[in-house]
Amino acid sequence: KRLTTHEIRKLWLDYFAELGHAVVESSSLVPTNDPTLLLTNAGMVQFKDVFLGLEKRPYTRATTSQKCMRVSGKHNDLENVGPSPRHHTFFEMLGNFSFGDYFKKEAIQYAWNLLIHELELPLERLWFTVYTEDDESEQLWIDVGAPPERVLRFGKKDNWWAMGDTGPCGPNTEIHYYWGDLEKQTAAGVNRDDEYLEIWNLVFMQYDQKADGTLVPLPKPGVDTGAGLERLASILQRTDNNYDTDAFLPIMQRIQELAGHTDEERQAHLFRYRAIADHSRAITFLIGDGVLPGNEGRNYILRMILRRAARFGKLIGFERPFLAHLADTVIELMGGHYTDLPPKRDFILRTITEEEERFHRTLSTGLNMLDDLMARLREEGRSEIDGRDAFFLWDTYGFPIDLTRDVAAEHGFTVDEAGFQAALAEQKEKSRASSVQGKYAPDAAVYGELLGNLQEAGIVGREGVKHLIYE
Ligand code: ATP
Ligand code: MG
Ligand code: MG
Ligand code: MG
């Protein structure tokens, strides 16, 4: 079958509605019931309390198409975006859920019917994985019609799910799709991330894990599944990557139009195009859900993604803010389903442009400084930027270390990162001391502390935010 992204979403929701599932709206990207989570990263997030038995709903089965972001915490795909044809920061996760209602048998039957009969996926390209001790699921796949040699067993790393160190957990079963040469597929390749594509993950919440590690069977086991809408689209539209589907092509084309690039130029900058297209969806939806650019938590994440896109834009030739045009295209594409977006169009576009302008000001001042610096170093025959100079750029002009690193690399320079870290630590120490004395603490110190906090919380890495240079 050949279906558009919107048709796939609709088919999915209709299919499960027909099977007695309540069609529940996507929750916001900003989780309302989980203070430990920065952004919604799976369909089950809005149902967490229902699974834990803390909340009752008027239904025991549900289906959703959930807005998700995977740029922080346990799931961080940011650096994959662009080079990976299938990982996004923002994506839609299709799901069906059972809250103590049906379990493995129905879940596997529903999945089989949907994939084979509704979506008409070729069985000779599908692989099914189960947890190594989950005999039941393996048998159920065979019972519905999966060839036994296509049902594979894997261990904890691939086929076990847990909500946390304690609490609900259980085996999962995944469906993978192979899009390479038919004769070349092998069972050993299935968990590889190249021509094998994970499309759907069915989690069976079966046990309650106690602090001492014992698994107590849950009185009412549940089902939580997630499938990537953009990945399904790539299969049904016969493209080998998500960016050539109807969910992304208009955005990619818009970038090309605005940049005035030839097809060859677009191809030469492919990864940057993809990252920009991805990020423009993310920032549109984040702002749509009420997140504003800032220096903390999810506000920082929005700022970081937006600036990353702006930076890639600069690298492919944009001299002026352009992201609002892409947000406009995103709203056009998605506003039919996410009807809250069109009324917020002006606000979203304005917010993006303001932040982009802010970034350009920072960038041009910092870039000039950096140019002078590199010219001086070149005269002295040196190729490393002093850590203290990198720190000065950041401290005084808000010029992030990752940009310094990027720009330096483009000109054949390296940055003394240890020196930068040392200067940063020194200043943190100073600001700590000064705030104890109740003195004025400069903005950059606050920012530095924040970055430290985010790093400690695992939200950003020790190196700060990476701006990869795609060649
Ligand atoms: P992968 O192994 O490909 O990184 P995952 O195992 O991390 O995926 P799950 O947590 O099982 O993903 O999420 C359920 C489904 O959501 C996946 O099977 C996939 O189809 C989709 N998905 C996960 N991460 C992304 C992403 N970053 N971008 C687009 N789709 C995704
Ligand atoms: Mg992943
Ligand atoms: Mg996986
Ligand atoms: Mg998975």
Characterize the structure shown.
Helix 2 (48-51) links the parallel strand 1 (22-23) and strand 2. 45% of the residues lie in helices and 17% in strands. It is built from 16 helices and 13 strands. With 471 residues, it is an alpha+beta fold. The chain folds into three domains: 5-240, Bira Bifunctional Protein, Domain 2 (BirA Bifunctional Protein, domain 2), CATH 3.30.930; 248-363, no CATH class; 383-471, no CATH class.
Task: Please render the helix and strand layout as text.
Layout: H1 5-18, E1 22-23, H2 48-51, E2 61-69, E3 71-72, E4 75-76, E5 90-98, H3 104-118, E6 126-131, H4 135-144, E7 151-154, H5 156-159, E8 160-162, E9 167-178, E10 196-209, E11 215-228, H6 229-236, H7 249-259, H8 263-268, H9 270-288, H10 297-315, H11 323-334, H12 345-379, E12 384-385, H13 387-397, H14 401-410, E13 414-415, H15 417-436, H16 443-456
Helix pairs in contact: 3-4, 7-9, 7-11, 9-10, 9-11, 9-12, 10-12, 11-12, 12-13, 13-15, 15-16
This protein binds adenosine-5'-triphosphate and magnesium ion (3 copies).
Residues 70, 77, 87-88, 91, 93, 198-201, 226-228, 230-231 line the site of adenosine-5'-triphosphate.
- Can you tell me the CATH topology of the largest domain? BirA Bifunctional Protein, domain 2
Give average pLDDT, whole number: 90
CATH architecture identity of the largest domain: 2-Layer Sandwich
Q: What share of residues are in beta strands? A: 15-25%
Q: In DSSP terms, counting alpha (H) and pi (I) runs of 4 or more, how many helices? A: 16
How many strands, what sense, and barrel or not for the largest sheet?
9 strands, mixed
Number of domains: 3
Bound molecules: adenosine-5'-triphosphate, magnesium ion
The gross shape turns out to be: globular
**Considering DSSP H and I runs of 4 or more, what fraction of the residues is helical?**
40-55%
For the record, what CATH class of the largest domain applies? Alpha Beta
Quaternary state of this entry equals: single chain
Structural class: alpha+beta
CATH fourth-tier homologous superfamily of the largest domain = Bira Bifunctional Protein, Domain 2
Q: Which segments are poorly predicted (pLDDT under 50) over 5 or more consecutive residues? A: 436-445, 466-471
DSSP, total strands: 13
Q: From N to C, what is the helix and strand string? A: HEHEEEEHEHEHEEEEHHHHHHHEHHEHH
